[in-house]
Amino acid sequence: LTVREVLDLAAARLASTQVTPRVEIPLRSTLSNTYRALGRTDDALREAKRCLDLARETMGENSIDELEARRTYAVILAENGESDEAEKLTRTAIAVYEKDPAKFDRELAQARCELGRYLIDRGTAAEGAEELRRGIEGLKKHVDDKDRNLQTAMHNYGAALDAAGKPQEAEKALREALAICEKQFGPDHAATAYEL
Fold it and tell me: Is there a contact between 160 and 116 (Cβ–Cβ < 8 Å)?
């Protein structure tokens, strides 16, 4: 059996089995993220949407589970070329997080980084860079200097600054992203080479 076949079997079994939402929501999220990693966007979108709908129906709009499912769905939408819809979903999550930043500080930071990426995709690099800056500032409170999310955010920030016509600032951000890769993977890893 291939990983894809196992995923398809798991999705089919989940669809035909009665489980509680507390079990089904994380299972669908895992299926969605795994399909996404395999490049099966349609399947990833289907599972992410089911996860979001289930979280809304059972846990309530703006619950922690629903907000996480909303952001996961938005990430996959953006990767599928639907940055406008991803931006809308992420902005609504950010609005909820901003009401209680002490409780949602890390989630708010990560959502800002996600929004920054969508804004870059839409061609608004300066606005994207600002969201990324704010997100990175928040992430640095919660992660160490080897964190992959921080590295990705720094890379995107550098790209946004470059697109916004700020090459010196871009170089600084990209060098920081490279340093994170070198700490995490070593100097000879493919991810480190990508940052070069």
Answer: yes
Give 186: exposed, middle or buried? Use CB within 10 Å, 0-12, 13-18, 19+: exposed
92, amino acid identity: T
Size (the chain), residues: 196
pLDDT tens track for 151-193? 999 999 999 999 999 999 999 999 999 999 898 888 888 877 8
Q: How many CB atoms lie within 10 A of CB 75?
A: 21
Distance between CA 24 and CA 97 in Å, rounded?
Answer: 24
Does the pTM of the predicted model rise above 0.85? yes
- Cα 1 to Cα 52: distance, rounded to the nearest angstrom: 29
Distance CA 60, CA 56 (A): 5
Instruction: Report the half-sphere exposure of 97 (CA within 13 A, side-chain side).
Output: 24
For residues 51 and 28, the answer to whether their CB atoms sit within 8 Å is: yes
